[in-house]
Predict the structure.
Amino acid sequence: MKKLLTLATLLLLTLTVLSVSSQAQNGSADFKYRRSSLHTILMELDNFPKKDTVIKAYYNAPFPDKYNDHTIGIKSFNPKLYPISDEERAASGVKKTMGGALKQGLFAKPGEVNDDPASYDDTLVILKFFKDQKIANKMVAKWFNRKDNGSFDIDLVADRGLFDASFLDTRTAMASSDGISLLKTAGLDLIYNTFVVVSKMNFLSNEIPAAIIRETAILAAKEINNQLLQAAAITAANIAYNKAKEGYSVWTTSYLYQLEWNDSIQHIFYNELYFDENNIDSARKVAFDTTSLFKLKFIGAEKSRSLVTFSLKTKRTEEQIVELATIRNIDAVFAKLQKSYDIFMPKTPLYTGYPITAKIGMKEGLEGGEKFEVFEQVMDPKTGIVEYKSMGKIEVDKNLIWDNRYSLGAEDPDNGNDNGKKPVLDRTTFKGGKNYYPGLLIKQIK
């Protein structure tokens, strides 16, 4: 308990006060708010078409700006280094079910066998990799800025905590109960919302599925008794094949994991593993290095596909077109994860209150008509615990959606002004509600 109170006192004394900073030019504001934290990892596959370009694009893709960058250094791994035995598979409860030829591995659900013998083991391979590399331990170590000597500090927790200035001013000599409440706020509101997304990418020739579809169509056509209709069906199948076979498809499957963090784990960490620079403890260092206390739990998975045809009427190289498709594909699968799993869906600050606008758009999957709930951050002055008070609902204006998808510059036809017919937008506008102001947070409603 003494260690816990010491840490609580340090946290109060060193918390960074963050406030709204006005931007005089446009009357808007750049707001800081509590974000979830994220680390991304790539599962490396064997050689496939355009692999070097796809992998390069993945690493060059902008980090998702609605999350804190919680990168720990390990950005990729080879799944072949973590084979799954029949015994491990049986113990996991994963069942094999054969899939069709079109599944190509990337079409399959987690835990499903298909033509890619590795894909049904993906979640097992990932967890084996997590355990071997102690990824969860590294995520916790990042939160507390762990040094080579094993000591921790709370600078990052303080920086991301965004505690109210008046609370800090009045509680620096707090009672123990306040200190524990503050630590719970910092831990359960921040560390609990820590995620890892593991992505598997492939670049497939469209000719493979197109050929399968053509053969299926021709077999069906041969069952037609009328020769003229049969010939017409075969011709149609060949025409469709010639059109569909051009180019490639970028496939991304992303698996979402969350760091397990609760009162029990937090208590053990603070009281049995934590020490600072002034209290070096070699036994605790070894204990943290070897503990299995920290884990990442599987939340869910999503897939996205982007078509690459090389037929755009722009002066782009083949490499640029592949890069564009790859990064937009990554954005698309993140948007799907956010919509499917509420815990991973970020809150976004309003950019202006009238008109109601926010810096989100097509990259986040907006098409028009999506509904968002508006929240105000309210802090309890006694405990420092932040709660979110609902203030109403708003809806995306389908005519005023920002195209913030990754582009290669002015040549991108999706990011221009359509020959002056449409305005160039830098934010998305919403309808509904009143008395909103910059800095309120919005979150999409399923």
Summary: Confidence is low (pLDDT under 50) at residues 8-29, 97-118, 164-180, 410-420. The CA atoms of residues 246 and 391 lie 50 Å apart.
